[in-house]
Amino acid sequence: MDQIxxxxxxxxxxxxxxxxxxxxxxxxxxxxxAENTQKEQEITSLTHKNQVLEGEIEKLExxxxxxxxxxxxxxxxxxxxxxxxxxxxxxxxxxxxxDRTIRELNEKLRQTDVKxxxxxxxxxxxxxxxxxxxxxxxxxxxxxxxxxxxxDEFATEIGxx
Length: 161
Description:
This protein is mostly helical. It is about 95% helix and about 0% strand. It has one domain (about 1-155): Helix Hairpins. The protein has helices spanning about 1-70, 75-160. Keywords: Coiled coil. InterPro entries: Tropomyosin.
Protein backbone atom coordinates (compact mmCIF):
# COMPACT_ATOMS: atom_id res chain seq x y z
CA MET A 1 0.00 0.00 0.00
CA ASP A 2 2.94 2.32 0.70
CA GLN A 3 4.27 1.49 -2.72
CA ILE A 4 1.01 2.57 -4.27
CA UNK A 5 1.07 5.84 -2.33
CA UNK A 6 4.68 6.40 -3.31
CA UNK A 7 3.88 5.63 -6.88
CA UNK A 8 0.85 7.92 -6.86
CA UNK A 9 2.95 10.68 -5.31
CA UNK A 10 5.58 10.14 -7.98
CA UNK A 11 2.90 10.29 -10.65
CA UNK A 12 1.52 13.48 -9.13
CA UNK A 13 5.01 15.02 -9.11
CA UNK A 14 5.55 14.04 -12.73
CA UNK A 15 2.17 15.47 -13.68
CA UNK A 16 2.98 18.72 -11.83
CA UNK A 17 6.39 18.91 -13.55
CA UNK A 18 4.81 18.29 -16.93
CA UNK A 19 2.21 20.95 -16.27
CA UNK A 20 4.86 23.47 -15.20
CA UNK A 21 6.98 22.67 -18.26
CA UNK A 22 3.92 23.13 -20.48
CA UNK A 23 3.30 26.54 -18.89
CA UNK A 24 6.96 27.42 -19.38
CA UNK A 25 6.79 26.52 -23.05
CA UNK A 26 3.55 28.42 -23.50
CA UNK A 27 5.25 31.49 -22.04
CA UNK A 28 8.20 31.00 -24.38
CA UNK A 29 5.85 30.72 -27.36
CA UNK A 30 4.13 33.96 -26.32
CA UNK A 31 7.51 35.68 -25.99
CA UNK A 32 8.57 34.47 -29.42
CA UNK A 33 5.28 35.59 -30.91
CA ALA A 34 5.78 39.05 -29.37
CA GLU A 35 9.32 39.18 -30.78
CA ASN A 36 7.94 38.07 -34.13
CA THR A 37 5.38 40.90 -34.10
CA GLN A 38 8.08 43.40 -33.15
CA LYS A 39 10.31 42.21 -36.00
CA GLU A 40 7.42 42.50 -38.45
CA GLN A 41 6.84 46.08 -37.29
CA GLU A 42 10.53 46.87 -37.72
CA ILE A 43 10.44 45.40 -41.22
CA THR A 44 7.39 47.49 -42.09
CA SER A 45 9.08 50.62 -40.74
CA LEU A 46 12.31 49.94 -42.62
CA THR A 47 10.42 49.14 -45.81
CA HIS A 48 8.62 52.47 -45.55
CA LYS A 49 11.90 54.29 -44.84
CA ASN A 50 13.47 52.54 -47.83
CA GLN A 51 10.60 53.63 -50.07
CA VAL A 52 10.95 57.22 -48.86
CA LEU A 53 14.69 57.12 -49.50
CA GLU A 54 14.16 55.70 -52.98
CA GLY A 55 11.73 58.54 -53.69
CA GLU A 56 14.31 61.04 -52.49
CA ILE A 57 16.93 59.36 -54.67
CA GLU A 58 14.70 59.71 -57.72
CA LYS A 59 14.10 63.39 -56.95
CA LEU A 60 17.81 63.99 -56.40
CA GLU A 61 18.70 62.16 -59.61
CA UNK A 62 16.29 64.38 -61.49
CA UNK A 63 17.87 67.40 -59.83
CA UNK A 64 21.34 66.14 -60.72
CA UNK A 65 20.31 65.75 -64.32
CA UNK A 66 19.01 69.33 -64.36
CA UNK A 67 22.13 70.62 -62.65
CA UNK A 68 24.37 68.74 -65.04
CA UNK A 69 22.67 70.47 -67.93
CA UNK A 70 23.16 73.81 -66.22
CA UNK A 71 26.75 72.92 -65.29
CA UNK A 72 27.76 73.30 -68.88
CA UNK A 73 26.98 77.01 -68.48
CA UNK A 74 28.88 77.69 -65.29
CA UNK A 75 31.36 76.52 -62.71
CA UNK A 76 28.95 77.21 -59.83
CA UNK A 77 26.53 74.68 -61.20
CA UNK A 78 29.26 72.02 -61.26
CA UNK A 79 29.84 72.49 -57.53
CA UNK A 80 26.14 71.97 -56.83
CA UNK A 81 26.08 68.93 -59.09
CA UNK A 82 29.00 67.44 -57.17
CA UNK A 83 27.21 68.16 -53.91
CA UNK A 84 24.07 66.49 -55.22
CA UNK A 85 26.12 63.54 -56.47
CA UNK A 86 27.52 63.12 -52.96
CA UNK A 87 24.01 63.34 -51.53
CA UNK A 88 22.84 60.70 -54.00
CA UNK A 89 25.74 58.48 -53.07
CA UNK A 90 24.97 58.88 -49.36
CA UNK A 91 21.28 58.14 -49.96
CA UNK A 92 22.13 55.10 -52.06
CA UNK A 93 24.38 53.84 -49.27
CA UNK A 94 21.57 54.39 -46.77
CA UNK A 95 19.19 52.52 -49.07
CA UNK A 96 21.65 49.62 -49.34
CA UNK A 97 22.04 49.59 -45.57
CA UNK A 98 18.25 49.55 -45.19
CA ASP A 99 18.05 46.64 -47.65
CA ARG A 100 20.69 44.74 -45.64
CA THR A 101 18.82 45.42 -42.44
CA ILE A 102 15.57 44.20 -43.99
CA ARG A 103 17.25 41.00 -45.18
CA GLU A 104 18.72 40.45 -41.70
CA LEU A 105 15.35 41.05 -40.07
CA ASN A 106 13.68 38.69 -42.52
CA GLU A 107 16.23 36.02 -41.61
CA LYS A 108 15.69 36.64 -37.89
CA LEU A 109 11.94 36.47 -38.45
CA ARG A 110 12.34 33.15 -40.26
CA GLN A 111 14.48 31.82 -37.41
CA THR A 112 11.93 33.03 -34.88
CA ASP A 113 9.18 31.26 -36.84
CA VAL A 114 11.23 28.06 -36.82
CA LYS A 115 11.86 28.34 -33.08
CA UNK A 116 8.20 29.11 -32.45
CA UNK A 117 7.17 25.99 -34.40
CA UNK A 118 9.70 23.93 -32.48
CA UNK A 119 8.38 25.12 -29.12
CA UNK A 120 4.79 24.59 -30.22
CA UNK A 121 5.63 20.98 -31.07
CA UNK A 122 7.34 20.59 -27.69
CA UNK A 123 4.30 22.00 -25.92
CA UNK A 124 2.03 19.60 -27.82
CA UNK A 125 4.29 16.67 -26.93
CA UNK A 126 4.31 17.70 -23.27
CA UNK A 127 0.55 18.09 -23.26
CA UNK A 128 0.19 14.60 -24.74
CA UNK A 129 2.58 13.20 -22.13
CA UNK A 130 0.63 15.00 -19.41
CA UNK A 131 -2.63 13.54 -20.73
CA UNK A 132 -1.10 10.07 -20.71
CA UNK A 133 0.11 10.53 -17.13
CA UNK A 134 -3.32 11.75 -16.09
CA UNK A 135 -4.91 8.67 -17.68
CA UNK A 136 -2.40 6.43 -15.89
CA UNK A 137 -3.08 8.26 -12.64
CA UNK A 138 -6.83 7.74 -13.02
CA UNK A 139 -6.29 4.05 -13.77
CA UNK A 140 -4.04 3.68 -10.73
CA UNK A 141 -6.55 5.54 -8.53
CA UNK A 142 -9.29 3.17 -9.68
CA UNK A 143 -7.06 0.14 -9.03
CA UNK A 144 -6.20 1.56 -5.62
CA UNK A 145 -9.90 2.04 -4.78
CA UNK A 146 -10.75 -1.48 -5.97
CA UNK A 147 -7.86 -2.98 -3.97
CA UNK A 148 -8.83 -1.02 -0.88
CA UNK A 149 -12.41 -2.20 -1.24
CA UNK A 150 -11.24 -5.81 -1.53
CA UNK A 151 -8.99 -5.34 1.51
CA ASP A 152 -11.88 -3.87 3.53
CA GLU A 153 -14.15 -6.77 2.50
CA PHE A 154 -11.41 -9.25 3.43
CA ALA A 155 -10.93 -7.54 6.79
CA THR A 156 -14.68 -7.68 7.37
CA GLU A 157 -14.74 -11.40 6.53
CA ILE A 158 -11.81 -12.07 8.88
CA GLY A 159 -13.52 -10.04 11.57
CA UNK A 160 -16.68 -12.14 11.15
CA UNK A 161 -14.74 -15.37 11.60
